[in-house]
Design a protein that fits this description.
By secondary structure, the chain is of the alpha+beta class. The protein is built from eleven helices and five strands; from the N terminus they run αααααααααβαββαββ. Its EC number is 2.7.13.3.
């Protein structure tokens, strides 16, 4: 019961006290009392119709408040004009007659309407003031006109001042709403980007590694079941083991990237090089040029994937050759290059290493796409002297 009363009280008070249902109810009752009892003599029937019509029209605002400006605005204008007509002939010797009070209240409410232009407010109030002055003149009582006109101007200025305050509040609320929508859209875009990032990581790790692993296992099964070739099957099983191991390494790297648990770029490159020295017995030199600085985690992952693929290709196509990994920090770019000698085939021609390694599952196309996603570029091909194969990736940084 208490909660119901509290909710009813909140509805009556509303968010805007000046436009709350309680305020309008109290104001409507006071104006009704003003209509019925604020007169010093008998009121002609036609005057009851005019001023009573003004109050009846004012009830439209009392019912709707500021919720229906297209209906409330003409109602307030009509109320002002009818009340101004009734000011002069109203049977009351005081300067604060019932029509004058109705006129002041209506002007104060009309002047603070944010849905009405300032020009329309000034024009309508000026017209109501002229009608009130003419009404007093026709009634033959011009002596009482100065005070109502002065108060009318004061009420108008107060209403306009309140209107500016309400406009600022309305603009602030709109700005807050736009900010909330922008934050919501930003969060949604960030979530979509993160989903795309997870999809790329899972595709790179699972689609390629598991696909190649499946092929090797199918070949091994065929060799055993159809030909009984144990030696060939063992060869493919060893390749499958290497694929599974490399895939596990890729998966761990993907999880680290998704968790943004990525070390600084120079440290990560040195760790990668050290791993190839230890696990593959490669001769790899790591050079860092420029002042190291923080780089975005997605750019770090792209460069590390490029370096890993290039080192894997070098180990496969140039076994035993010295490999150089160079990391350079330029003012606006970060460059990573992997250089290894081109091994000559038996025919005597240069055989550049292939861009796609069977075990890594991440070829030249995949490298270029990943680097492009972070706004970078990738190139691969023979060096200037034609003796080395160079893979170079540049990303903003």
């Amino acid at each position: 019961m208490a909660q119901r009363l509290l909710r009813a009280a909140r509805r009556l008070l509303g968010s805007d006290p000046e436009n709350s249902p309680l305020f309008r109810i109290v104001g409507g009752l006071l104006l009704a009392a003003n209509l019925l009892w604020n007169h010093g003599g008998a009121v002609p029937i036609w005057l009851w119709i005019v001023f009573g019509g003004a109050y009846a029209i004012f009830l439209i605002y009392e019912f709707y408040g500021d919720a229906r400006p297209r209906l409330v605005t003409p109602a307030l204008i009509a109320c002002m004009l009818l009340a101004a007509v009734a000011v002069g002939p109203w049977p009351d010797i005081s300067q604060v007659s019932a029509p004058v009070i109705q006129l002041w209240v209506t002007i104060g409410i009309f002047a603070r309407q944010i849905a009405v232009s300032t020009r329309l407010i000034l024009t309508t109030v000026a017209l109501a003031g002229v009608v009130m002055v003419l009404s007093e003149l026709f009634a033959g009582d011009p002596a009482h006109i100065l005070t109502p006109v002065a108060i009318l101007v004061i009420v108008l200025l107060m209403g306009l001042y309140r209107r500016e305050y309400r406009v600022q509040i309305h603009q602030t609320e709109m700005l807050l709403e736009q900010t909330r929508r922008a934050q919501h859209e930003h969060a949604r875009a960030a979530a979509l980007d993160e989903r795309a990032r997870i999809a790329r990581e899972m595709h790179d790790v699972l689609a390629h590694s598991l696909g190649a692993l499946t092929v090797q296992l199918e070949v091994a099964e065929g060799l055993l079941s159809e030909k009984g070739d144990v030696t060939g099957a063992l060869t493919h099983l060893r390749r499958s083991h290497r694929l599974a191991r490399d895939g596990l390494t890729e998966a761990r790297g993907a999880v680290a990237a998704l968790r943004e648990d990525v070390p600084p770029l120079p440290e990560a490159v040195r760790g990668l090089v050290e791993g190839y020295r230890r696990d593959r017995r490669m001769s790899v030199d790591c050079l860092v040029d420029g002042d190291p600085r923080a780089v975005r985690s997605d750019a770090v992952v792209s460069l590390l994937r490029t370096a890993r693929e290039a080192l894997t290709n070098a180990a496969k196509h140039a076994p035993g050759a010295a490999v150089t990994v160079a990391l350079s920090f330029a003012p606006e770019r970060v460059r990573l290059s992997v250089r290894n000698p081109i091994v000559l085939a038996d025919t005597g021609s240069a055989e550049p290493p292939r861009a796609h390694d069977e075990g890594g599952g991440y070829g030249l196309t995949g490298m270029r796409e990943r680097v492009a996603l972070v706004g970078g570029t990738l190139s691969a091909g023979p060096g200037r002297d034609g003796r080395d194969w160079v893979v170079t990736a540049e990303v903003p940084g």
